[in-house]
Amino acid sequence: MDSEKQKELEALALRVREHIIKMSTDGGCFIGASLSCADLIVYLYKEVLNVTPATVKDENRDYLLLSKGHDVPALYGTLAELEFFPKERLKNHLKTTDSIYWHPNTQIPGIEFHSGSLGHLLSVSIGIAMDIKLKKASNKVYVILGDGELNEGSVWESCQVAAAKKLDNLVAIVDRNEFQANIRTEELSPLEPIEKKFEAFGWTTKRVAGHDFQALEEGFAKLPLEEGKPTVVIADTVRGKGLPSIEKRADRWFVNFTHEEIKSLLEELHGGSTTELKSKALHVR
User: Phi, psi at residue 220, to the nearest 5°?
Assistant: First the structure.
């Protein structure tokens, strides 16, 4: 990847993070996991997916489904920046006059499927991938899973079916930020070694640094990784990435910041001093 391309992606990811922070007040949002997957979503839409605002209903487009629906501020921010809908619409977050809410809503251009309850969209992705196979088309289905979401049994049932159906047009991406809601994954129910678990279910695996665009380019360079098998890319990320005041904090998964905190956090995102947070930490289940 040349330096100009990297700068372009970094600038876009920074703007997406600004949107996420601005949606973290007046009712709040799930900021920690949104910031962890912002670079992943930006990279996929800019460098991998064959979909644009003009082809969003084209049956030959690539599909992206956000199974960890809590991260939708990152997806909304990316779609707005890429002109799937006007950026001004993000100001409607949590207003009853719009569908910009805490979880993906298909009323928003670019959103392929609703999500919120975890563990469902890998199976939905399998259905779409099978339909593409039946049509003998070449487009692909990408689904982003949370690492804590891997504790859902439905994920592993779906993995078994995807391998049995030889869905090499299906790519799962695991946002491995090491947290599940308000606790570390390895403290609640250890997930590692994730690669070996997917491989045991018949998948091919790749592990990458999820905030490094060069590493993401290498991770998604060849798909499928193996003909006849579904692929999973495990992206190691940091919850709250970009804001040192909330990075890797279990108590800042869902937040509802004050307007003063938002102003300070935007400055922090651009290299300012660490924000002194005074709003109450929230524990959400």
Answer: -105, 15
Give φ, ψ of 265 to 5 degrees: -65, -35
Cα–Cα distance for residue pair 95/83, rounded to 1 Å: 21
Those residues whose C-beta lies under 8 Å from the C-beta of residue 87, and which sit 6 or more positions away, are: 19, 80, 81
Tokens for 174? 């695991």
3-state secondary structure of 207: strand
Note the pLDDT of residue 228.
98
Query: Per the confidence metrics, is the pTM higher than 0.85?
Result: yes
For residues 258 and 264, give the distance between their C-alpha atoms in angstroms, rounded to a whole number. 10
Q: Read off the pLDDT of residues 64-100 as tens digits, 9 standing for 90 and up.
A: 999 999 999 999 999 999 999 999 999 999 999 999 9
Domains of the chain are: 3-270 (3.40.50.970)
Type of residue found at 4: E
